[in-house]
Specification:
Elements (H helix, E strand, L loop, with lengths): L1 E12 L2 E13 L4 E5 L6 H8 L7 E6 L2 E2 L5 H8 L2 E5 L10 H11 L4 H14 L15 H12 L6 E5 L7 H18 L2 E6 L2 H7 L2 E6 L2 E6 L1 H5 L7 H5 L8 H4 L12 E8 L4 H11 L4 E11 L2 E10 L3 H13 L3 E7 L1
Parallel strand pairs: 3-8, 3-9, 6-7, 7-8
Antiparallel strand pairs: 1-2, 1-4, 4-5, 9-10, 11-13, 11-14, 12-13
Helix pairs in contact: 3-4, 3-5, 4-5, 5-6
């Protein structure tokens, strides 16, 4: 549905060049939901604005639904943009128009008959759960309601693509989840392709089937979340989901020994990389291997049936039992580090 091929974009300020995008290649399949994540200034907004040519790349191709937008005249591009909906962080509603008329605006500009506009807008307000707010003005709406109006307006021309530019950044966590659920429902109901940019990992985890990671204008990784987090190399996505080395409880750290001594047991940090669920690991240690242990800390992310993160265990079996447990970790590619003995 969307093909971004060898796209580069450079901005100039006081004769200094800044390469916002550097040879980006990305494909978004029809009806997929793809998130582009990266730190502030990484090039995310520039990338998504290149998809509908609000920013024109100096190199590369943008192909949407089989049409190469970079080859179109301004008139042709205006027609194609009608099928590329876009929602923004700050909603961009017209304060002088009620909810109904905000949603109706694209249809009015396209010369759609009034009866059809009324039918279409009423239908869209039903989809976003705001039918009873049709005559309210933006000043009387919450942030989540404003974004729902913006979504309805973006759907007015029956687009096949919806672009979301930090669409939940101005919302509280609960409202964010309701908007993401709405987008997910729209994706299924309308078979709509969604490309969104965000710096919030919760957004990617909640809605995206695939993710692309952008850093300093370069696309450094793409795939499913599971695929990216399972990699050993430190893609920028790890900054959004995994914590630093885990600290020991004070009572243990004060008496921790670096080397093994008789009667002491290892404290081990284990990194889950998606190959094994947390509950399966715990069941193996306690059930099959029958090694007594304590979970000192756990920082686990649950992505469907996949777990990522770290846990700190104090193995408390015999030397042989503890060694078997560590052997098991190694056999299943679970990165582990002995922090000391206590």
């Amino acid at each position: 549905m969307i093909t971004i091929k060898n796209v580069s974009k450079t901005f100039y300020q006081k004769d200094k060049a800044f390469k916002a995008l550097d040879n980006i290649n990305l494909t978004v399949a029809e009806a997929d939901i793809v998130g582009v994540i990266g730190s502030s200034g990484a090039g995310k907004s520039t990338l998504i604005r290149c998809v509908n040519l609000l920013e024109k790349p100096e190199e590369g191709q943008i192909i949407v639904n089989g049409t190469e937008l970079t080859r179109l005249t301004e008139k042709q591009l205006a027609q194609e943009r009608k099928k590329i909906g876009m929602i923004f962080q700050h909603f961009n509603l017209l304060s002088s128009r009620a909810v109904f008329n905000n949603v109706a605006l694209p249809l009015e500009l396209d010369g759609v008959p009034k009866a059809e506009i009324r039918r279409k807008v009423t239908e869209l307000l039903e989809v976003v759960g705001l039918r009873e707010k049709a005559n309210d003005y933006p000043k009387n709406l919450s942030g989540g309601q404003k974004q729902r109006v913006a979504i309805a307006r973006a759907l007015a021309n029956d687009p096949y693509v919806l672009l979301c530019d930090e669409a939940t950044s101005a919302l509280d966590p609960a409202t964010t989840q309701s908007i993401l659920q709405l987008l997910k429902d729209i994706n299924k109901r309308l078979h709509l392709t969604i490309l969104l940019i965000t710096h919030e990992m919760e957004v990617v985890k909640s809605i995206c089937n695939h993710v692309a990671v952008i850093d300093r204008g370069k696309l450094v990784a793409k795939g499913t979340i599971r695929q990216l987090l399972a990699k050993d190399d430190k893609h920028i996505i790890h900054q959004f989901i995994q914590s630093d080395a885990m600290t020991l409880p004070k009572e243990l750290s004060e008496n921790l020994q670096k080397d093994y001594q008789e009667g002491l047991c290892p404290i081990i940090e284990i990194q889950l990389n998606g190959n094994m669920r947390f509950d399966v690991l715990i069941a193996k240690i306690s059930g099959e291997y029958q090694v007594p242990f304590k979970v000192l800390r756990a920082d686990i992310e649950y992505l469907g049936d996949t777990n990522f993160g770290k846990l700190l265990l104090h193995l408390m079996g015999s030397t042989e039992e503890n060694a078997r447990a560590i052997y098991y970790f190694n056999q299943h590619q679970l990165k582990n580090t002995i922090k000391g003995y206590a």
